[in-house]
UniProtKB/TrEMBL annotation:
One of its GO terms (cellular component) is apical plasma membrane. GO terms for molecular function: chloride channel activity. InterPro entries: Glutathione-S-Trfase_C_sf (IPR036282). This is Chloride intracellular channel protein 4-like. SUPFAM superfamilies: GST C-terminal domain-like (SSF47616). It comes from Diaphorina citri (Asian citrus psyllid). PANTHER family: CHLORIDE INTRACELLULAR CHANNEL CLIC, CHLORIDE INTRACELLULAR CHANNEL, ISOFORM A.
Length: 230
């Protein structure tokens, strides 16, 4: 029986998972594999990076979160964690021809959001162009089958584990910090989000809104003004 421990970021409430995208992704992935009976069980350990417990520091890693310990082997590189979980517990995720299109449709929206919330971009035009691409992709997937709720079909794929935490944080941060709502005419994005909010894997991994707001408020300070001296 595999012994899997997942160390994730502790939220500002000292109770829930924090607003760490990689932590959310890995917890979602583990949940899906457990639901598919590929993992017997796993333990989530929430860690305050500034005050890590001895059980975490004794792993001899770089105090980087998230990390996993699988049968006494500790790994703290996010890409290596995903590879390790896939290699040791293959399956439990939808894989089909929509994956490459989903990657293309979603590859730039988070950077556009980051520019907007940090004040680098002065308006939401470029971000909404990325929302349009995601919405069009989701429409194509739903047109294939009305039961399709996620980026590649009726079940979650690996890319859903990576994109849904980002999209949710984008929605919450923009609404709170910039009073911006994802436009309702991107109806397939909203359908996608509501599918996530009713999915147990997403719910287990999702931080409270307050944690997301705190995280992004600290990154959204106005840029300093520079005076050019001639």
């Amino acid at each position: 029986m595999a012994n899997l421990k997942i160390y994730v970021k502790l939220g500002v409430d000292n109770k829930n998972i924090g607003a760490c995208l990689e932590s959310q992704c890995i917890v979602m992935l583990a949940h899906l594999k457990k639901s598919a009976h590929l993992i017997d069980n796993y333990t989530i350990i929430k860690v305050n990076p500034s005050k890590p417990p001895e059980s975490f520091t004794s792993l001899g890693l770089r105090l980087r979160i998230p990390c996993i310990v699988l049968n006494n082997d500790a790994i703290d590189d996010p890409d290596e964690i995903l590879t390790t979980l896939e290699d040791n517990f293959p399956g439990g995720l939808l894989k089909n021809e929509f994956e490459s299109d989903a990657e293309i449709a979603t590859r730039n929206f988070f950077s556009r959001f980051s520019f907007y919330v940090r004040g680098v971009a002065k308006d939401c035009h470029n971000l909404e162009q990325e929302f349009l691409l995601i919405n069009q992709h989701l429409e194509k997937v739903v047109t294939r089958d009305s039961n399709n709720l996620f980026l590649c079909g009726s079940q979650m794929s690996l890319i859903d584990c990576q994109i849904l935490p980002k999209l949710h944080q984008v929605r919450v941060a923009l609404q709170s910090i910039l009073n911006y709502e994802i436009p309702v005419h991107y109806r397939y994005i909203w359908k996608y989000l509501h599918s996530a909010y009713n999915n147990a894997a997403f719910v287990e991994a999702c931080p409270p809104d307050e944690d997301i707001i705190c995280h992004w408020s600290n990154k959204s300070q106005p840029l300093p003004e520079f005076v050019l001296v001639l």
